[in-house]
Design a protein that fits this description.
heterodimer; A: alpha+beta; Arc Repressor Mutant, subunit A; Alpha-Beta Plaits; two-stranded antiparallel sheet; 5 helices; B: alpha/beta; Aspartate Aminotransferase, domain 1; Aspartate Aminotransferase, domain 2; 3-stranded antiparallel sheet; 12 strands; 43% helix; 12% strand
């Protein structure tokens, strides 16, 4: 990955809606170079998607997010990959990570209610052959997510004019 | 009221009120004005530096340090000067830790000026040089700089200002408010004149880490210059430590000794907590500085692009975090323009005249703001400019 690509990532990681034209301006380069950089990184799988940070709590729509630690028995010759695939295929599942520590997989799940999430865990997750145990934690409040502070608006603390 | 004939020091009362102050008062009356007028970074001091400061308090480091400042800090600064400018300074006697670069400037004048000595001050430049010269009984001699020279000090301009009484030349680069820089060739061109006329230089390099076309070169690194330069630098702009009040002066032992003497009586020592934090900054802060520099550079390009779009002429600044566009086409003074802009669009931009008479016809736009803020403020400036042009027709 070259310097330009790294800088482009730095910009779009915080705000994926910055136009290629503006990126070209602030990076002191040509727009075509930015477009090519994005394309290369998309093809290489470095850029996997462009998503939006939403604070669902501020809407009328009910959403509950849970973090579930899952302990599994890894299968011979396949390790954790198959189990992870089985789990991540569910659309309710937002993320699946293989982690170090007491548990093996960390799954985040979204549902309309606590009940719905619990039902998913008990009927679809815990019932998998390879799953030994789960520990479900419900997210009560998101302070910061994906590098974005969700609770307070930025306030400039400086004096308005200084020499 | 007092029966004293002259209650207040005439010298002090006689100082011109700051143009910045006046504008600040106007702006603070406007409740919802957005500003492009700050002279300090929008970044917070990097956490590892803050932690070191906090930790030093927890460890009970709450006493005075030596007058010159912590030996460890002076050693780090000596190492920094060696590594970035190739200049060797002795941490004992050639480096003084001060309360911001501001104190170092003040001390230098008070240590060196005898009544009637002339101090050459290129303008537009930072607001303190003139008043501090006067307070030290010196005579400020202003050298007006030109836009067509990108506000660099030209040899002819320097020569024209020198008189038998000239003692000190203030060299403030990278520059506040113009964003101008002096490259090696520019410095070499004036170094000969300085040596020829036995001038001493106050080199204010507080923005030294914020250059966007190659590394900053200090005049003290040129042959024959180290022994006649007091190099002032600090932590405010590079490490976003404005409130910590951390600066330093490097220079010849005899000058630093006098500066230390005054410092000893007036201040005792710079804040201890800040000194410990500063050591951490020098040791492990390079990456943070590089990141901030990259951010500033992106915003710099953004602002230049927007000004171009508005048709406001401006040379491309390669240092600090300011842009100095020209508003002469509108036939208004900088102050009038700035006040009108504030009233109509609620945007505060500092008039160039706050930095000297040669700032007339210019504005100082600071880009120590997020791109979102810059977009909004420059959008309003654009509207205002369009309106003015319509009215002219």
């Amino acid at each position: 990955m070259n310097m330009l690509e790294e800088k482009v990532l730095g910009i779009i990681e915080k705000n994926s809606r910055v136009s290629t034209r503006e990126m070209a301006v602030v990076l002191g380069t040509e727009e075509i170079d930015v477009i090519n950089a994005l394309q290369n990184m998309e093809e290489a799988g470095v850029i996997c998607g462009y998503h939006t940070m939403i604070d669902w709590d501020k809407t009328d729509i009910d959403k509950v997010t849970a973090l579930i630690e899952v302990r599994v028995t890894p299968q011979r010759g396949k390790g954790f990959d198959d189990i992870a695939e089985r789990i991540y295929k569910y659309p309710e599942v937002n993320s699946v990570y293989l982690i170090s520590g007491g548990y093996d997989l960390m799954v985040t799940l979204e549902g309309k209610s606590l009940k719905e999430v619990s039902r998913f865990v008990s009927s679809k997750l815990s019932t998998l052959d390879t799953v030994i145990s789960t520990a479900t934690h419900f997210i009560l409040k998101k302070y910061k997510d994906h590098g974005t502070i969700m609770t307070r608006k930025y306030e400039d603390q400086r004096e308005i004019i200084t020499p | 009221m007092s029966k004293q004939e002259k209650l207040l020091a005439e010298k002090t009362v006689g100082l011109k009120p700051s143009g910045i102050r006046r504008f600040f008062d106007l702006v603070s009356e406007m409740k919802d004005a957005i500003s492009l007028g700050v002279g300090e970074p929008d970044f917070d001091t990097p956490w590892h530096i803050r932690d070191e400061g906090i930790y030093s308090l927890e460890k009970g480091r709450t006493f005075y340090t030596s007058n010159s400042g912590l030996k460890e800090l002076r050693e780090e600064i000596a190492a920094y000067m060696k590594r970035t400018q190739g200049i060797t300074y002795d941490p004992i006697g050639e480096i003084l830790i001060t309360v911001g670069g501001s104190e170092a400037i003040d001390l230098m004048f008070r240590a060196m000026i005898n009544e009637g000595d002339e101090v050459l001050i290129p303008q537009p430049s930072y607001v303190s040089y003139e008043p501090c010269t006067i307070l030290a009984d010196g005579k400020p001699v202003i050298i007006p700089l030109k836009n067509e020279n990108e506000f660099r000090l030209k040899p002819e301009e320097l020569r024209a200002a020198i008189t038998p009484k000239s003692k000190i030349l203030v060299l403030p680069y990278p520059n506040n408010p113009t964003g101008a820089v002096m490259g090696k060739e520019d410095l070499e061109a004036i170094a000969d004149i300085i040596i020829e006329n036995d001038l001493y230089v106050l080199s204010d390099e507080i923005y030294g880490e914020l250059t966007y076309a190659g590394k900053h070169v200090s005049i003290a690194s040129l042959p024959g210059m180290k022994e006649r330069t007091v190099l002032v630098n600090g932590f405010s702009k590079a490490y976003a430590m404005t409130g910590w009040r951390m600066g330093y002066a490097c220079g010849p032992k005899e000058i630093l000794a006098q500066m230390t003497k005054i410092h000893q009586y007036a201040i005792m020592c710079a804040p201890t907590t800040s000194q410990y934090a500063a050591i951490e900054a020098l040791r492990n802060g390079d990456e943070d500085v590089a990141q901030m520099r990259e951010s500033y550079n992106q915003r710099r390009r953004f602002v230049m692009h927007k000004l171009e779009g508005m048709g406001l002429p401006c040379f491309e600044p390669m240092g600090a975090f300011y842009v100095f566009p020209c508003i002469k086409e509108f036939g208004m003074s900088s102050e009038e323009f700035a006040e009108e802009l504030l009233k109509e669009e609620k945007v505060a931009i500092v008039p160039g005249t706050a930095f000297g008479d040669s700032g007339e016809g210019y504005l100082r736009i600071s880009y120590a703001y997020s791109i979102e803020n810059l977009r909004e403020a420059l959008g309003r400036l654009s509207k205002f400019v369009k309106k003015l042009r319509e009215q002219k027709k």
